[in-house]
Amino acid sequence: MDELELLKQDWKKQEAVLPRLSYEEIYQMILKKSSSIVKWIFIISILEFIVWASLDLIFRLTGLNSKIMNSSIEIFSFIGSLLSYTILLYFIIRFYINYKKIKTTDSTKVLMENILNTRKTVKNYIWVNLSFFGVLMISTTIYLLFFTNEFQGDTIEYTPIWIVIVSTLLVTIVFIGVIALFYRLIYGILTRKLKKNYKELERLEL
Amino acid sequence: MNKELEHSFVTNLEQNQNIVHKVCRIYTSDPDSHNDLFQEITIQLWKAYPKFRGEAKFSTWMYRVALNTAITLYRRTKRNLKTTDIDTVNFKIKAEEYDDEVEQQLKLMYAAVKELNDIEKALVFLYLEDKSYRDIAETMGISEVNARVKMNRVKTKLKKILNP
Fold it and tell me: What is the pLDDT of residues B108-156, one digit of tens each?
């Protein structure tokens, strides 16, 4: 193609008009912080871990937990905590391994795969957490309603069971919905370009 | 030790900064974005530098990190992307060096390259830098055959943009 050859010749000449930075200017640049996509994915994921861990802590500290504890479901709660911390630990390790794999010195394709894997791990973490929360919420309610005397107590005496069930369901759905939407937005914005480029590269392999 | 590393890195980059500027030229259209991308590439190069052991040429190693940053890591900070029409493509060519027709053709070519997607730009960039298909394939992580096929498609696409 003649035009591209023409461009190639001109490209070499362009070197003469490129900007030139001084030693000092470049030195100042290495002191600054990166604002790359990967860094943002990393920061947000760390925040997620903190948010979930502190939710758990608040749950315990506010006595909400002890109230449930009194309802003779210690084992239920213990298994729940054990499970959630195992999940957390597993994902922290996975996430760290993924993050370590991201190197700009890999080929473009490998680099993209590694970033998308990190992203996928975070996504899985969110879904596991949300489903865990949902199952816990619903099963705890059912347990309290049908297998204990909690709701035969003084305060909620006149609340019909169906209202308790429907409101629990509603709260759970809204909570999960809001969080899911929030994540979709954040990661959607962060990885849109990456995904597009990855698909483009994938197409090359066909 | 750290100072030594800093000094060797900055010296190396200062000498080879053309490569980074050229990547910025291909991927950005205004001076602010150019500087932003240059900054991000510099940080990524610096982060990877301790692992750079001189097994490849510094410049070869730079191509990879710079392109990877432009394609995968860089986020345009400005929301209001300026649309670049042909005249604003700021490649200053000395008027006396070309006749008008060639100059016009070049302007159109640069504008056409700007319309390509990020992956295609990378291919064109490496092609303009006179890299072999083997180098192109290795940098992108695709097979040599695919690099050739894709490059041909890019050429066709450029032709279509130029002669709609």
Answer: 888 999 999 999 999 999 999 999 999 999 899 899 999 999 999 999 9
Long-range Cβ pairs for the range A194-198 (8 Å, 24+): A194/A37, A194/A112, A194/A115, A194/A116, A194/B72, A195/A116, A196/B117, A196/B118, A197/A112, A197/B71, A197/B72, A197/B117, A197/B118, A197/B119, A198/A112, A198/A113, A198/A116
Give the nearest chain A residue to B66 (CA atoms).
A104
Question: What's the pTM?
Answer: 0.76
Contacts of B162 in chain A (CB under 8 A): 3
Under CATH, which architecture does the B1-82 domain have?
A: Orthogonal Bundle (1.10)
Contact A7 B110 (CB under 8 A): yes
ipTM of predicted assembly, 2 dp: 0.77
Select from B34, B91, B141 the Cβ nearest to the Cβ of A110. Answer: B141
- Cβ pair B43:A33 closer than 8 A: yes
Residue the block writes with tokens 């993050």 = A99
